[in-house]
Design a protein that fits this description.
The protein has helices at about 45-50, 115-120, 130-140, 155-165, 175-180, 200-210, 225-230, 250-260, 270-275, 365-375; strands spanning about 5-15, 20-25, 30-40, 55-60, 65, 70, 95, 100, 110, 125, 145-150, 185, 190-195, 215-220, 235, 265, 280-300, 305-315, 325-330, 335-340, 345-350. Strand 13 (about 190-195), helix 6 and strand 14 form a beta-alpha-beta unit. The longest helix has 13 residues, at about 250-260. About 20% of the residues lie in helices and about 35% in strands. By secondary structure, the protein is α/β, with parallel strands linked by helices. It has 2 domains: about 5-170, Carbamoyl-phosphate synthase small subunit, N-terminal domain (Glucose Oxidase, domain 1, 3-Layer(bba) Sandwich), CATH 3.50.30.20; about 175-375, Rossmann fold. It is globular and about 60 Å long. It starts with 5 loop residues before the first strand and ends in an 8-residue tail after the last helix. It is built from 10 helices and 21 strands. Strands 12-14-13-15-16-21-20-19-17-18 form a 10-stranded mixed β-sheet, sandwiched between helices. Helix 8 (about 250-260) packs across helix 9. The mean pLDDT is about 95.
Amino acid sequence: MKPNHDGFKAKLVLEDRSVFKGVGFGFPCKVVGEVVFNTGMVGYTENLTDPSYRGQILCLTYPLIGNYGVPSYTIKDDIGLPKYFEAEHIQPKGLAIHELSRLASHWTMEKTFDQWLYDEHIPGIHGIDTRELTKHIRVKGVMMGAMEVSNNDIDDELLFKELNNSESYNDIHFVQETSTKSPQTYGESNKCVVLIDTGTKYSIIRNIVRMGYKVVRLPYTTTIKQVLSYKPKGVVLSNGPGDPKYCKETVKLSQDLLEREIPTLGICLGNQILALASGADTYKLKYGHRGQNKPCIDIRNGNSFVTSQNHGYCINPDSLKRTGFKLWFKNADDNTVEGIMHKNKPVIAVQFHPEASPGPYDCMFIFDMLDKMMRGEKIAKT
């Protein structure tokens, strides 16, 4: 199959006045968002449906995108979730790639990549030097950008005006958009795990069910009373978009979980929320960690793991000193905090994605550690 929604005029402009001119595809429209990059080599269907990308314009550094097309949302896994996706819809506001594949073929394919973006009203730009864009962000840091895909000529100044009049990514509480609005249940076990949804990926749900538990997915505003009403064996705080300091209700819930010593696992945003709940602090990284080859070191034993990541915020390591947490994982590239472990309570958290999807499965053992804690077993803390 060949692209049907391609060949438009397109531009991406950044707040520092940089302009990237290319070819538009997908849905013709204008969007504004924070421009970030992902260095992964595989998994564009999983990446684009990761709720942690809400509010952003995503640049994929792998040079060719769309060659295996897009499968159908109607193909379900064993618990009724779309098998090849991490949410029901594309999450970034726009997409920048180097080359859109002219042909797409795969046995699961339902539509072409450009058709998928068109159907979900997402604009894309290709034919730009994504290496230049990525290096620019690495040097200057992430920044707001505006993208337009159109049949007509695009006026740079009008696009910059749109950008300047838009709200900053840092000022928006995106978890309000990505969290479930009501309880949802997955699996049929009589053992329950409560998942606090700040923008969860479906693969987190799949892995909890894999361990033999029923998952009750609750909104980020859930209270401890509501959690306890399900008599859970443990709690998982999910990934999600934006600044963790906006999630005041989830921070309060995490404080209550710590006080009651309920077995808890935090993932990505959940890691940051647990740190805030204990009195630590978080900050925004210059350009974040987004990819599938991020090396992390378990400081208990020096073992290194290749991890999948997607986050722009991080825990201040110095602030952990005034909490009950200690450093568990650190990033081998920049020594940032990649995991914390409570010194005497059954609470652990990681900044990376143990469920991968996409990425390596090196860190699935994190879920098994949660399982051990919920069964009352001790885990190695030194």
